C-alpha cells in the first residue's frame, strides 16, 4: 500500500518534517494530523513506550512563563475524561507537546453529521465533561476554551468515553506572554471578553452550558456575523429559551442550562460538580425520557451515544471488555429508596487520537442507506487475506464465551457445537478483533437447531436490550441467525436475519428467502463495511441491508455502535457444524 513517503505513491509530496521533529529521536513520525491556529499536530510512535502519541508543535514560550506553568499543571492531570499530556520538551527552539492520541469523534463534528442529540445522550456526555472539569478545577487548572470540538468521544472496541482536549494548552496557543486567551467566541463566557485574566472555573461552566445547548439544539446559543456582535450577545443578549428551540425538553434541564449561561458568574452553578449532580436526574431512572438500570455489577457500564436525529430519544449501553469502575462526583440524596449513582467505565489499554477524527467519517448520515460493494478489489479499501481462522485440528485462536466449553469440539476437521436444550447459549469467539471484513464458512444444522454468526462482539458482554431493563444473565452478542426455522420455536428467527435485540416481532433485518436447512452443508458469506451488511448463502444474496435501520428503530445492541469486535459462532439447541472458516479484512482507505 503506498504511503506518503513511498516514491511510488500517487499522493502529493508531503511537507518536510520540521527540524524539531527530525531531531527528536525518541519518536517515529508517521504523518501530519492537522494544522491550524493552535499549531501543528503530528501522529508519531513513541519508540521507547511502543505507543502512538500526538505531537503538537508551537513556539517555545520561554522558561518561567505562565503558559509553561499551565502546561506543567495540565500534564499532572490523570483522569479518564481528560486527554493526557504526557510530556513537554523544547527541541531546537520549538515546544513539542506529547499527548494521548484518541480514535474518536469530537462533538462538533458529531452534531454536524448527526444533528441534535437525544436528551439523555447529551446529558450523559455533559455529565462526563463536568466530572472531568471538577477534577481539573480541584487541581487548580482552568480550561478556558470548552467547546464541542474540544470534547472528544473516544470509542475503542467497547466503551465510549468523553475526553476533554487541550487542558491548559488552549489558553495560551499563539498567545504572547502577558496576553490571555479569551477562548472561542461562540462559547466564551462574558467575563472572558471583559477581563480574561479574571476568568475562573465558572467560565468553564458557562462554556459547558453553551456546549450542552449545542448538543440539544444543533447550534450554539448565539449566532452573529462578527466577533464583535458575538461578544455583545454574550455580554447582554439573553440566550434563546431551550424549550422554544427544542420542544419537549424537560423543564428542569432547561432551567439548568439557563443557569449555566447566566451573565453573572455568581448566578451560575458554582462548581462543575454541582452541574454533574444536577444533570444526573436526566440520565437516571427518574428521568421521563430515559431509564438507566440500577448500578450494574463490575464489568458493565452504561454510556450513551446518539443513534438518531429524530425526536425520539434512545440510549445505547456500551460495555467495556476490561472495566475499571470509576466513581464520579457524589450526586446527592437517594429517591424512592434507589441511590442516584452513575457508573463510568474506561477501557484498559491505549486509547487512540487528536486532531482529525476518522471515527466521524465512518458513521453514516441520518437517512442514508448504503450497501456493501461486492468488488474485492476496491482500490480504496486494501484487503488482507483471505486468512484461515480454523486449522481443522484445534480451536487455537478461539475462546469459548458462556456455557460449557465442552459443548465445542473439533471432530474430523469440523467445529462441532452441541447446544443444551433451553440453554444457556454458548459462543465461540475469535481471540482477535476485526473491523470491516468478509467472512466465509460452511455450516450444517441438525433438525431443530438454532445457531448464529456473531460480529463486533466483546467477551462477557451482558447487554441491556430494553429501556429500564437488566443486563442479560449470560453473555449475549449481536448475530446473524442460522437456524432451522421449520421448527416452530425458530419460525421467527430464519437464517440470515439480524434482530434488534428486543422481543420477538421487534425490529429486524429480514432475509429475502429461506436457504436449505438441516442435514446439508451450506456456504455462508458475511460482508460488513461500516453499517452496511451483506449475507449470502450458496452464492445467492440472502440479506443486503444497513444496520442503521436497527439503530433508528431503537435497538440497544452495543455492537451496532462499535466499529470493531470479535467474530464467532453461537449455539443454543441441538447440533451445528462449521468448517472452512476464512476472513478478508478491509483496511482503512489509502491515505
From TrEMBL:
<dbReference type="InterPro" id="IPR010496">
    <property type="entry name" value="AL/BT2_dom"/>
</dbReference>
<keyword id="KW-0547">Nucleotide-binding</keyword>
<dbReference type="InterPro" id="IPR011009">
    <property type="entry name" value="Kinase-like_dom_sf"/>
</dbReference>
<dbReference type="InterPro" id="IPR008271">
    <property type="entry name" value="Ser/Thr_kinase_AS"/>
</dbReference>
<dbReference type="Pfam" id="PF06439">
    <property type="entry name" value="3keto-disac_hyd"/>
</dbReference>
<dbReference type="Pfam" id="PF00069">
    <property type="entry name" value="Pkinase"/>
</dbReference>
<keyword id="KW-0808">Transferase</keyword>
<keyword id="KW-0067">ATP-binding</keyword>
<feature type="domain" description="Protein kinase">
    <location>
        <begin position="27"/>
        <end position="283"/>
    </location>
</feature>
<feature type="region of interest" description="Disordered">
    <location>
        <begin position="497"/>
        <end position="517"/>
    </location>
</feature>
<dbReference type="GO" id="GO:0016787">
    <property type="term" value="F:hydrolase activity"/>
</dbReference>
<dbReference type="GO" id="GO:0004674">
    <property type="term" value="F:protein serine/threonine kinase activity"/>
</dbReference>
<dbReference type="GO" id="GO:0005524">
    <property type="term" value="F:ATP binding"/>
</dbReference>
<dbReference type="InterPro" id="IPR000719">
    <property type="entry name" value="Prot_kinase_dom"/>
</dbReference>
<protein>
    <submittedName>
        <fullName>Serine/threonine-protein kinase PknB</fullName>
        <ecNumber>2.7.11.1</ecNumber>
    </submittedName>
</protein>
<keyword id="KW-0418">Kinase</keyword>
